[in-house]
Amino acid sequence: MHYPFPGDITVETFLRDYWQKKPLLIRNAFPDIKSPLSADELAGLACEPDANARLIFEEHQHGNWYVQHGPLYEEDFSNLPEKDWTLLVTDVEKHSAEARELINHFRFIPDWRIDDLMISYAAEGGSVGPHTDAYDVFLIQVEGQRHWMVNTEYDETCVEDTELRILKNFNSAEDWILEPGDMLYLPPHVAHHGIAVNGPCMTCSAGFRSPSISNLVSEYAETLAADIDPELRYEDPDLDCQLHPAEIPPAAINNIKALLLEQLQVHDDLLQRWFGRYSTEPRAGVHPHYPDRLFDDFDDLVSVLNSSTAIAQSRASKFLFMQSDDSTLLFVDGECYKTSLNFAIAITDQRTFSPATLLNAAQTADDQQVLLHLYNNGNIIIVDEA
Questions:
Q1: What integer pLDDT is reported at residue 153 of this predicted model?
Q2: Which ranges in 205-267 belong to alpha helices (H)?
Q3: Digit-coded pLDDT (tens) for 27-81
Q4: What 3-state class would DSSP assign to 13?
Q5: Contact 340, 328 (CB under 8 A)
Q6: Beta-ladder partners of 321
Q7: Which of 139, 142, 136 is CA-nearest to residue 110?
Q8: Strand partners, 207
Q9: How far is CA 174 from CA 24, 136, 150, 300, 373, in A?
Q10: What's the CATH number of domain 11-208, 2.60.40.60, 3.40.50.620, 3.50.50.60, 2.60.120.650?
Q11: d(CA 6, CA 77)
Q12: What is the mean pLDDT of residues 347-355?
């Protein structure tokens, strides 16, 4: 399925000339845009126990920055100053259908790379300071005005005594005032600073996963280690007598090297299953809700689905699939299922689908059991329950 670029250029042009290369400003990328949540609704979400929220304050007189982590409380908002603060809430698409619809515009980037939609509300003068991100981001202005300043060359020295990584000596090379509907794309490691001007503003940020190599290696190695027989031990039946007892001899290092090389081989099948699970692993505290009624029999589920208007992926779930040599693997929230290709495509190409589309795709016994499990687990829902 083809998703167009939200602007006056093609996806192919964007990927070729801008993606992970240089910033791009698109004026009026989203005409008549409205924020997925109002300011009051965003504040309410920030008070929920499973929301990831932060309040950030700048104290200009002494150049200090402060962070208050959620969940927040109503009294936190009643005591806010008039200026120079920002509320940030991440993973909003897991709580709001409108936010999910907005982030769907970016499915021209593979789903496994899409991370979340963050919404920020900034009082006049509010910002999170000049900084860089290690991932790609699309910044969509939805209310008010924000002054963005960027530079691809910068001093990496950060402000001390704050948990925020704020660049101490930031200088702008380019700057723009973004109006509602405007969008700014920034590749990783571009210094940027956004400040609410002429009153408060709201900005939606579509961020993309960029796992560190160290995390990939450690997570994959942990998977390999879990499959190694714990009874296997280092052995040296050909041990020679050595002159210095404290010396680690070359033979021992060679043995260790051989053991590690044997166990750390990258096998395609294991790698595929691990990476699909890794890429769909839910964040802490974000889980789908079980349906009110569970089904043991697929036919009973069919009758319920057929009586509904539409079925949807749970906003809290992430769906991916991969074609291997002899099968199709469907990944949902860190779990792996073997299905037909038709079923995997039907349940992942769209976020919402008709019962007939999904049931017609579930032709094999494996597909039907997976569909039954996904419904019972809350990964797919009757759309009225969304």
A1: 94
A2: 213-226, 250-263
A3: 999 999 999 999 999 999 999 998 899 999 998 767 789 999 999 999 999 989 9
A4: helix
A5: yes
A6: 330
A7: 136
A8: 116, 137
A9: 11, 18, 5, 60, 51
A10: 2.60.120.650
A11: 34
A12: 93
**Which tens digit of pLDDT belongs to each residue from 183-233?**
999 999 999 999 999 999 999 999 999 999 999 999 999 999 998 999 999
- CA pair distance 73, 141, nearest whole angstrom: 26
Boundaries of every domain in the chain:
11-208, 298-385
Look at the block and give the residue holding tokens 């809430």: 89
- Please state, in angstroms and rounded to a whole number, the distance separating the CA atoms of residues 356 and 214: 44
- Residues 331 and 361: their CA atoms lie apart, in Å, by 17
Residue 361 has a pLDDT of 95
Residue 331 in tokens: 């990944």
309-322 pLDDT, tens digit each: 899 999 999 999 99
Per residue in 313-346, pLDDT (tens digit) is 999 999 999 998 788 999 999 999 999 999 999 9
The b/e string for 72-110 (b: 16+ C-beta within 10 A; e otherwise) is beeebbeeeeeebbbbbbbbbbbbbeebbebbbbbebbe
pLDDT at 1: 63
Helix (H) or strand (E) holding 352: strand 352-353
Rounded to the nearest 5 percent, the helix, strand and coil shares of the chain are 30, 25, 45
Q: Which residue, chain included where needed, has tokens 């998703």?
A: 3
